[in-house]
Amino acid sequence: MGGAMLKGWLAAKSFSKIHVVEPNPTRALRRLAKEGNITLATILHLDKGREFSAAVLAIKPQILKEQTEMLRTLGESGALVLSIAAGITARALAVRLGGDVPIVRAMPNTPGAIGRGITGLYTPKKLKRSQRALAQQLVSALGDSFWVAEEKLIDAVTAVSGSGPAYVFLFAESLAAAACERGLDAVTADKLARATIIGAAALLEQDKRSTAMLRQEVTSPGGTTEEALKILMGRDGMRPLIRSAVKAAARRSKELGK
């Protein structure tokens, strides 16, 4: 996700100077840094007189917990810190950063890699208008963004939109598998499943009626769709499965912060 943000910043020319800290930079990152005039370093080192407006923590929560020295250095800088590490609370970050540091937690999702994602944002304290604008600018390369008033809602965002693309991909995978069982070859089945989901998503974007109304429009009384929905909307169907899946993901998000 950090790479997607980086590419978006470069394309939009959002920032005059970008510094990337990566202990093990990939060949792609090295090339991007060279082409985009990005300063690439393996460790965070702040020279006297050098100031920066914000730092984005785009690393896995398990790794972030181990970066004591780096976080302390960031805390001393006074810059806005935006973290996309799932489960790591603002309080936990504040303890590691030290001092009175402006913190924003963000939860993007993978469609952000093509600028079609959505990001939930949370801050534990009132930010300056310029800091809120900067936080939104940092994630704007990924797509839309919105603020939540309570930190616990970030766990819900993580479980719904953060993990959500995987749910959709699994549905596409399952739909293609069912198509194969009905006699279609694998290539055609995959094409059909992808096109169906892409088309339905485009309709969702353009047609502002409720999802229930859109579903009902496809469902003719006594028809094939109605017969299928009797299974999907049954007692052990899609709704309870999705509720259980989202609950499990939210619970895991909380666990990652411990």
* Multimerization state: single chain
**CATH-level-2 architecture of the largest domain:** 3-Layer(aba) Sandwich
Q: So, the CATH homologous superfamily of the largest domain?
A: NAD(P)-binding Rossmann-like Domain
Number of domains: 2
Distinct helical segment count: 12
- Sheet-strand content, in percent, reads 5-15%
Strand order within the widest beta sheet: 3-4-5-6-7
Radius of gyration (Å) = 22 Å
Order of helices and strands: HEHEEHHEHEEHEHHHHHH
Overall structural class, as computed from helix and strand content, comes to: alpha/beta
* CATH hierarchy class name of the largest domain: Alpha Beta
Provide the helix percentage.
40-55%
Distance between the termini: 23 Å
Could you explain the architecture of this structure?
The protein has twelve helices and seven strands. It is α/β, with parallel strands linked by helices and 258 residues long. It has two domains: 149 residues, NAD(P)-binding Rossmann-like Domain (Rossmann fold, 3-Layer(aba) Sandwich), CATH 3.40.50; 93 residues, ProC C-terminal domain-like (ProC C-terminal domain-like fold, Orthogonal Bundle), CATH 1.10.3730.10. The chain has a five-stranded mixed β-sheet with strand order 3-4-5-6-7, sandwiched between helices. The protein has a two-stranded parallel sheet with strand order 1-2. Strand 1, helix 2 and strand 2 form a beta-alpha-beta unit.
Furnish the topology, listing elements before pairings.
Layout: H1 2-12, E1 19-21, H2 27-35, E2 39-41, E3 54-57, H3 61-64, H4 68-77, E4 80-83, H5 90-97, E5 103-107, E6 117-122, H6 129-139, E7 143-147, H7 152-162, H8 164-181, H9 186-206, H10 211-218, H11 224-232, H12 238-256
Parallel strand pairs: 1-2, 3-4, 4-5, 6-7
Antiparallel strand pairs: 5-6
Helix pairs in contact: 4-5, 7-12, 8-9
